[in-house]
Structure formats: structure tokens, C-alpha cells
Amino acid sequence: MTNLNLSNQKLRGANFNSANLAGTSLKGSDLRGADLSNSNLRDADISNARLNNAKIVRANLSRADLVRSNLTGADLSNSVLKDSNLRETILIDCDLFRVDARGASFPSANILNANLSDADLSGSDLSYANLSDSDLSFARLVMVNLSGADLLDTNLSNVDLTGASLRDADLTRCNLSYSNLQNANLSGAILKRVNFTGAFLQGAIMPDGSTHS
Q: Chunked in runs of 10, what are the mean pLDDT values of the chain (213 residues)?
């Protein structure tokens, strides 16, 4: 079933469990409530698709194009999103527990109230993304780009943010307890009522431009 053209199709509630859809085009399709668990969607074009409440557990979405798709309420737990493109994608209320999204692009994505705990987002681009009220506890965010991101009330406890860019990000009421912010860039960031209990800040550039010793 690889490299199929299923663009702009009505596939609501379809069962693609364990299907091999590598390279397939699902661009603009209605996949609301569909089951794509354990499926191979590597290099697939799923841009501008509707995937509200879809089940995409343990799926391979490496290098997939999900630009401007709507995944509100979808379950992507334990899935692979390495090097995928999720620019301006809607991921509100998503379950992204333990996803492997290393090198993925999420610029300006809406990831409000999502579960990203224990996820690996190292090297990913989350610039100007909305991550407010989301849970990223115990996630790996090494060298991630969070410049201009909205992290209002976000749980970043026990997170590895080594070398991360948080320039001009809004971290109001963010929980950064026991997180690793070594060599992170916080210049211009808003740090109102942030919880830094037990956080490691050696070498971090603070909002005023000074380096934390």
C-alpha cells in the first residue's frame, strides 16, 4: 500500500492499524477518529488533514509532512516523529507521551494542554509554538529551539534543556524545578513566578544578558 494517492478522501473512522502507508499522500483527507496505530507513515504527506481524535499509537511518522493538520485530541503516544514537519499544526489536547520527535519542526504549532511527558524533542524547532498548560515533565529537550514560545503554566520539571534556546519565550508560572538549563539561552525571556527549585543553571544566559555562574 506504499506511495498511494489518498488525498482529499473521506476516511473518517477508517481502520489503518498496522498498515504500510510509507510515502502515501493523505493530504487534505478527513481521518477524524481513524485508527493508524502501529502504521508505517514514513515520508507520508498528511498536510492539511483532519485527524481529530485519531488513534496513532506507536506509528512511524518519520519525515512525514503534517503541516497545518488538525490533530486535536489525537493519541500519538510512543510514536516516532523524527525529522517530521508539523509547522502550524494543531495538537491541542494531544497525547504525545514518550514520542521520539528528534529533529522535528513545530514552528508556530498549537500544542495547548498536551501530554509530552518523557518525550524526546532534542534538536527540534518549537519556535513560537504554543505549549501553555502542557506537561513536558522528564522530557529531553537538548538543543531545542523554543525562541518566542508560549510556555505559560507549562510543566518543565526534570527536563533536560541543555543548550536550549528560550530567547524571548514567555515562561510565566512555568515549572522548571530540577530541570537542567546548562548553557541555555534565556535572553529576553519572561520569567514571572517561575519555579526554579533545584534547577541547574550553570552557564545559562539570563534575561538581562548576564551568564549564570
A: 90 98 98 98 98 98 98 98 98 98 98 98 98 98 98 98 98 98 98 97 94 87
